[in-house]
Structures are given as structure tokens and as C-alpha cells.
Amino acid sequence: MSFSALLLSLTLVIISVLISARQKLQLEKDILIGTVRAVIQLLAVGFVLNYVFHISDWRLTLIMLTVMILAAGQNAAKRGKGMPGAFGIVTAAIGGGTFVTIIIMVGLGIITFDPTKVIPIGGMVIGNSMIGAGLVLNRLMAEIKQKRLEIEAALALGATSRQAVEGILRSSIKAGLIPTIDSLKTLGIVQLPGMMTGLILAGTSPLQAVRYQMLVAFMLSSTVSISCVIVGLLAYRRFFSQHYQLLELKY
Amino acid sequence: MPEIRCQGVSLTKLQGGLSTEILRAVGLTARQGEIYTVIGPSGSGKSTLLRLINRLLEPSSGTIFFAGSDIRRMPVTEVRRKIGLVFQQPMLFPGSVEENLCYGPRLRGDNSREAAKYLDMVGLERELLQRDAAALSGGQQQRVALARALANKPEALLLDEPTSALDPRATEQLEDLILGLVQSLRLTVVWVTHNMEQAKRVGDRTMLLVNGQVVEERPTADFFSWPEQELTIRFLAGKLESGVQGNEL
Ligand SMILES: Nc1ncnc2c1ncn2[C@@H]1O[C@H](COP(=O)(O)OP(=O)(O)O)[C@@H](O)[C@H]1O
Ligand SMILES: [Mg+2]
Fold first, then answer.
1. Which domains does chain B have, with CATH numbers?
2. Which end of chain A, N or C, is surrounded by fewer C-beta atoms within 10 Å?
3. Between the CA of residue A52 and those of A59, A62, A199, what are the distances in Å?
């Protein structure tokens, strides 16, 4: 795509600004800011990726992945509403899931540890893990808060902390997995995933693009499962003392 | 002897930089086969005391002994199995009555299906076993909660206002039931109630707790016939329901 074609496509943004002005939506400023941000962020990513792909050093690739995981952890931790240690837990979970999956893929020779493969695939995997991890954390906190008395009834009968939150843990992990499973179900029917769309636009044959997309789908289910389980198993402990006492927490 | 003994038990909580004393130097001894009743206005710390004995809470200072050992030196799950706690609300788990009754034993890998036996014990019909626990009446639920605690084969029972949600008839039935069980199973019981008449009917010893402090503590008959403390007399006259200011103690 030529640069002038890209500039012309900016008229589309002008249309949305005009609609907003006409309909008094008062979104003109937001649309413009949003557009400028998108342009700057995408350009920055483009330059960074260009550089990383060009250098093609495994250490740099690893650093890139780590930065992505930290950013995703930061974002997912927001769903922990001030729970201390939330960032550490979700980052460990997202990182754990991502690395296990990448190690398996590279170990089996399915992909090479090459920035052009690992970084885009890692990005998708990390993004989905981030959403899953955030959902698990959020659900776990809400349910423990809501079911305090029931949990204490279980503890009073001699349950360990883990036994007392068994059902809650299960439903929280499930809550984190559902968006990924749902998107698997509709893959290709309701939505053509971004990666496939991109590959096809760039000239890859649809059949080749589909292969990559399947790979990503399989990786997503494994990574998100691992991440959700890790969040659940690490996070519930924060609510209990070592003597299986449900702590009173402000968050 | 499964005796429950509290020695100088205090609990202080930090709230917004201010420390509040919820219990101060509480002592009690509850003996096997006896019912120790704890009465006091609401907010005086009765529930908190039971939660400490069950080790759902940790005291700030003081020691709690069960059968002569400091409960901190026993595995906490064992403390809780041996000292059953029945809450003010039945807090049954979602599922059938049988699932509720088997919960405690199953935690320890005991899958013997003795649930029916415990329903008998609390005077409920065996047909209820497969019933959804949430579908029972309040009185039935409280009995299931009691049976669920008994299924752990406890040596002691802590009861937190177990009849507060029941009508007078169901209250009387549950009282008789518990009195019978205490005798047949030789349980040690600490029974919290805000109902003085109930304490009088079922107690062997009675304590009045006000603002986290023991006001008076004696054999039940003496407690009600010859109260010694000014505050006890006021409480028994029904003039203390809203609690007292700290400086009155
Ligand atoms: N989780 C808590 N945090 C702070 N204060 C509490 C907490 N639970 C209870 N309290 C306070 O401790 C006191 C005793 O409560 P509680 O033991 O429930 O009294 P009772 O059972 O006699 O009505 C009350 O003043 C209550 O406000
Ligand atoms: Mg209470």
C-alpha cells in the first residue's frame, strides 16, 4: 500500500468527525485524539518490530516478549482492584502460560525461535491470556467477598483453604476460559481473525493463512488455560492465613 | 477430658488507625457434658469469642486450651473437627441434604454413607436426604446444620444463637434436642444466646459479656437468682439491650 493511499484513507476519519459534529455527539475531540494515538503507537511498533526483526537476536526477542508480558500484567492487574500482589500474580500467570506454550512449540519444531514468528504469535497469546487472567482474578475476588459466610462454614467443618474455595476456584477459572473457548467456536464463521485477515491482505493464500490461524487457536487454548489456572491457584491464597483463616481484606 | 478453657483472651482490631478492643481478657472454662451459656447485648463480642475458640480468628493475646492443649499446638483442621461450630444462619451448601451431611467426613476421605444416622439424631425424616437443602424450612435447615456438625463426630459444640431465627415452638424443640444430645454424646457446649430465658433453661454455667468484657460468670442457677454485679442486674431487667458506655465497666 502506498503512502498516498494511506493519507487518502484519512478521509474516512473526517467522515466520522463530520457525523459526530452533525449529530452533536461531541466525540470529535476523542476521535481525533484516538486517531493520532493509533497512528503514533502503530508507527512506533512498526519501527521497533522492523528493528527487532532486522537484528534477529534471540536475546532481543526475549526482551520484547518480556516487555509485552509486563505490559499485559499491568493491564490485567487492574481487574484486581487494589489487591496487593495482583501484578505479580497475573504477570507470573501470563508469562508462565506464554513461555510453556512457546517452549513446546519451539521444542517440537513447529515454529522456530525467530522474532518474525515468536513476536506476532506471542502477542496474540499474551493478549488473550491477559483477558483470561484479569477475568479469573476479578471473579475470584467478587465470589470470595460474596460467599464469606459459606467459606467460613466450610473451614469450620475442617476444610483447608483450598477445599473451602474449591467451587469458587472452578467457576473463576471457567469464567477466564469462556471468552477464548467461545471465540474458538465461532472462528472462521462469525469472525475472520485479525491475523488471518492480515496475512490474506498481504498476499498469503487463504489456505496457508488458515494453517497459521489454527496454530494460533491451539496455542491460545493452551496458554489461556495455563494462565487462568496459575492465577486461580496463586490468588486464592491471598485471602487466607496459613492457619486456614479467611482474612478480612479491604479490597 | 474435652474441656474448653480460655485464658486472658483479647482481640484488638485496627480500624482507620484507631485500635478497638473487641474482647478484653476473657476467661472461661466449659466442661464435658455441660452447657456453658454466654449472654450479652448484641455487639458485645459473643460471636467473636466462638470464632476464636474455633480458630477462625487469632487472638491478640491470651490462650485457648482444648482438652488441656493450646489449640495453636494442634493441627487447625483437627481443632475445627473436634470443636464444631454452628452459626446463627444455617449456611448450608448448595446441593442436597445428604451432600451437606457428608461434607465434613469427605474432607478426610471418609466416604461411609452415614448421613441418615445424623438426620435421625436431629429428629428429621430420612426422606429429606435427597432434598435440596435450600428448599427446607428455617427450622429444618438449622437442624441440618447441627447434623452436619455432628457428622464430624465432634467432642465439643459451639452454638451461635442457633434458635434466633426460629419460632417459639421450633426453638423449644431444638433446645430439647440439643439437651438430649449433650447428655447422650457427652459433649462440651458453649452456647451463645441473647435470650436470657434460654440461657436459664439450658445452661449449667452462664457468663454475661458486655463490650467485650466478662461482667459476671457463675453457675446458671446462681447467676439468675443472685446476680452480684450492678450491670448484670440491669441486663436481667432488660435495661441493657443497647449496650453500655465504656466508662461504666
Ligand atoms: N470484622 C470485624 N471488624 C471490625 N469489627 C468487628 C468485626 N466483626 C465484629 N466486629 C465488632 O466486634 C464487636 C463484637 O461483634 P460480635 O462478636 O459479632 O458481637 P455479638 O455476636 O455479641 O453480637 C462489635 O462491636 C462489632 O462491631
Ligand atoms: Mg453474634
1. 4-241 (3.40.50.300)
2. N
3. 10, 11, 20
Q: Measured between CA atoms, how close is B55 to chain A, in angstroms?
A: 8
Query: Is the residue at A247 inside a domain?
Result: no
For A152, which of B56, B77, B84 is closest by C-beta distance? Answer: B56
Per the structure block, which three cell numbers stand in for B150?
A: 455432628
Mean pLDDT of A69-79: 93
Question: Do A106 and A20 lie in a common domain?
Answer: no
Domain shared by A47 and A66, yes or no: no
Please state whether beta strands B83-86 and B156-160 pair in parallel, antiparallel, or not at all (unpaired): parallel
- Is the shortest distance between the CB of B47 and ligand 1 below 6 Å? yes
Q: Are B87 and A245 an interchain contact pair (Cβ–Cβ within 8 Å)?
A: no
Our answer on whether the CB atom of B213 is closer than 6 Å to any ligand 1 atom is: no
> Can you give the pTM of this predicted structure?
0.87
| Three-point CA angle B74, B79, B85, nearest 5° | 165
String of DSSP letters for A148-191: HHHHHHHHHTT--HHHHTHHHHHHHHHHHHHHHHHHHHHBTTTB
**Distance in angstroms (rounded) separating the CA atoms of residues B155 and B182:** 10
Identify all chain A residues contacting B58, using CB atoms and an 8 Å cutoff: 241, 243, 245
Cβ contact, residue pair A157, B103, below 8 Å? yes
Q: What pLDDT shows up at residue B194?
A: 85
User: pLDDT tens digits for B165-203?
Assistant: 888 988 999 999 999 999 999 999 999 998 899 999 999
A153 within some domain: yes
- Least confident span in A110-119, A176-185, A193-202, B57-66: A193-202
Give the model's pLDDT for residue A191: 63
- Pick the residue of B81, B107, B159 with the most A CBs within 10 A to test the interface with A by mutation: B107
Cβ contacts from A onto B, under 8 A: 55
Query: How many CA atoms, within 13 angstroms, populate the side-chain half-sphere of residue B89?
Result: 9
- Flag whether pLDDT at A162 surpasses 70: yes
Q: Are B188 and B2 in contact (CB under 8 A)?
A: yes
Grid cell locating A204: 498469503
> How does strand B35-39 pair with strand B205-210?
parallel
**What DSSP state is assigned to residue B132?**
B
